[in-house]
């Protein structure tokens, strides 16, 4: 019995002892768990990750967007663009470059004209997202695993494949969270 247990333990220790392998193992486990609870197929999740990478690369490669802050979120091949640009034509440029990326089916252009937000504002946005997610987890009518929450400068963007009732409930929860300035509905309802 002890030899059967010791071999897996020795193997695990050897794997974890290799440089970077512990992080890879933890990351792979987290991806596996989140994939299992996500409403999208695994293939769509992979497509969304690839779309985000392609869009980010395309936006970063355009020198006209150098003085901007544009975040990219893809969910079910719909891309949410948010952030700040100094001129409105740059928001349009970002949307057009995004539409040109293979696999993108829809673009929610929520980029705002204004100065790039501060690290304090970014930190506050993370806190708001955490508060909203915690409320969603405890709500009996919302499956928090199906709702993606992104906050930018006090504005909350909500994405996911949910029922119309679940979307309304999640939006109401976000609207009634202290510190939220606005809630943008980017849900796909079924």
UniProtKB/TrEMBL annotation:
The keyword Isomerase does not apply. Pfam families: BON. Keywords: Signal. InterPro entries: BON_dom, Lipoprotein_DolP, Transpt-assoc_nodulatn_dom_bac. The keyword Glycoprotein does not apply. Residues 47-115, 124-190 form the BON domain. Gene3D superfamilies: 3.30.1340.30. PANTHER family: BON DOMAIN-CONTAINING PROTEIN, OUTER MEMBRANE LIPOPROTEIN DOLP. This is Osmotically-inducible protein Y. It comes from Pseudidiomarina piscicola. The lineage of its organism: Bacteria, Pseudomonadati, Pseudomonadota, Gammaproteobacteria, Alteromonadales.
């Amino acid at each position: 019995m002890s030899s059967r247990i010791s071999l897996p333990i020795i193997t695990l220790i050897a794997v974890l002892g290799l440089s970077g392998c512990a992080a890879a193992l933890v990351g792979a486990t987290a991806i596996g768990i989140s994939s299992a609870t996500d409403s999208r197929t695994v293939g769509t999740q992979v497509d969304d990750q690839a779309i985000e990478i392609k869009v980010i690369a395309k936006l970063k490669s355009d020198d006209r967007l150098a003085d901007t802050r544009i975040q990219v979120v893809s969910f079910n091949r719909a891309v949410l663009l948010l952030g700040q640009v100094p001129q409105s034509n740059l928001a349009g440029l970002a949307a057009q470059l995004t539409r040109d990326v293979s696999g993108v089916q829809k673009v929610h252009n929520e980029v705002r004209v204004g100065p790039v937000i501060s690290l304090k504002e970014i930190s506050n946005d993370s806190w708001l997202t955490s508060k909203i997610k915690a409320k969603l987890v405890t709500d009996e009518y919302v499956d928090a695993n199906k709702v993606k929450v992104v906050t930018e400068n006090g504005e909350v963007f909500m994405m996911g494949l949910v029922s119309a009732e679940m979307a309304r409930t999640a939006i109401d929860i976000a609207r009634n969270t202290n510190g939220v300035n606005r809630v943008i509905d980017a849900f796909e309802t079924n």
